[in-house]
Amino acid sequence: MEFLNHLNISSNNAGVSTGTQWINSNGETIDSFSPVDGKKIGSVTAADRPSYDAAIAKAQEAFAEWRTWPAPKRGEIVRQVGDALRANKEPLGKLVSYEMGKSLQEGYGEVQEMIDICDFATGLSRQLYGLTMHSERPAHRMYEQWHPLGVVGIISAFNFPVAVWAWNSALSWVCGNVTVWKPSEKTPLCGIAVQTIIAGVFEKNNVPEGVNVLVQGGREVGEWISHDTRIPLVSATGSTRMGKALSAVVAARLGRSILELGGNNAIIISKNADLDMALIGSVFGAVGTAGQRCTTTRRLIIHEDVYDAFKAKLVKAYGQLRIGNPLDVNYHVGPLIDTDAVNMYLQSIEACKQQGGNFIVDGGVMSGDGYESGCYVKPCIAEANNDLPIVQHETFAPILYLMKYKTIDEAIALQNGVPQGLSSSIMTLNMREAEQFLSHTGSDCGIANVNIGTSGAEIGGAFGGEKETGGGRESGSDAWKAYMRRQTNTINWSDKLPLAQGIKFDLS
């Protein structure tokens, strides 16, 4: 395919790079198969321990120089990265769609997120502000400043194979850090493409080799990063199970972690909602990316007065969904990432039935022409109680659960009554309901929306969640502070040395 050639994707690719240089490795071969048609796209050689150590050493060496570049100059590099992504938006978006399986529009949208965070980080490079404080001692000045941490490890997931890397890297670079990226082993070629694009910008600007390191591999490489004391911060996206294991390891060595883990997101549909608007938000939230977003809508909590009417609208809308090749813009829903994901989807459907759920839109695996990969499934809907074990669990597939409520307090309790706490939404035209949902007695999620769905976060706000979602924050607002170390400074410009708290220390 032409977009593969444009991005310099070959049948066999080295998987360890320090920027413009690729390091030989004797690691395992990772084959990438497209869930779109089941065809092999290419292969990547994963890192082995010697190549990994060489890459980290080069990153450390690069940090010693990169941190001395003025932040606005680092921001200028990131601006050029954004321009390079603009120039490659179409081929990279197609690769994201083909290797991961999301719709072409979502593939383009993911690359646009990369561009947007580069724009944000470029401005941020001139706004790494600290505070000035008044000292209790005369002729003293206090202030705080922020310094780079060093090497930042980034472990990303298959569902957003490039955007989450960009969220972390763009901020890290303007803060003066260098990055080491382990992409998902399910989407390794997206990592190759991005590394190649960035290398061109860095080489043109004489950026030190090692500022942007790529280390491909599976779980073992992730464990190396987690245990590595040379990496003070690890930002990881994935399952709650993975996050718990990683955070324990990183904390044991007193490192830092940013965790973006599972979501079990709900939309409350009020009797005061605009039901047509609620329908659009609910359906896209539930079936977008074939349900493989951490912000996917998995539960609808619907007021009893509009339950039957809204359920009828949903069933009709699901009957109009077109499932097929995501590179064809006429289709709404593409495939799951692989057949393992399909099996989990089928197991979840069976578990829901056994636990008492009632399916009003049946699921199943698509077959026939165009579905040869075996990864296309039907989005389905079940009526189920919130306390069912399967409803409490995040299934990374397009399964939507419906439940009724009587009062807004009950609805919020249902919304909050799961272990995860990423994204949430209420559809209502009632100001009191909206404000209650957004108050400290309302949603317990990191993201809470009114009259929009649970997915589609913008880069200007900090992204992340609470409880088993991990508590991390990435992207906008002041998320940049997680990538730096804070230092408080006190300057005495008098000819005396008074001590704090009025303590006297007389040596005469």
TrEMBL record:
Write down the InterPro entries for this protein, in alphabetical order: Ald_DH/histidinol_DH, Ald_DH_C, Ald_DH_CS_GLU, Ald_DH_N, Aldehyde_DH_dom, ALDH7A1-like
* Keywords, sorted A to Z: NAD, Oxidoreductase
Q: Where is the active site?
A: 260
Protein EC: 1.2.1.3
The protein's enzyme class: oxidoreductase
Q: Does the keyword Lipid metabolism apply?
A: no
Q: Which CDD domains match?
A: ALDH_F7_AASADH (cd07130)
* Pfam families the record matches: Aldedh
Q: Does the keyword Lyase apply?
A: no
Assembly, in brief, is: Homotetramer.
**Family assignment from sequence similarity:** Belongs to the aldehyde dehydrogenase family.
Supply the name of the protein: aldehyde dehydrogenase (NAD(+))
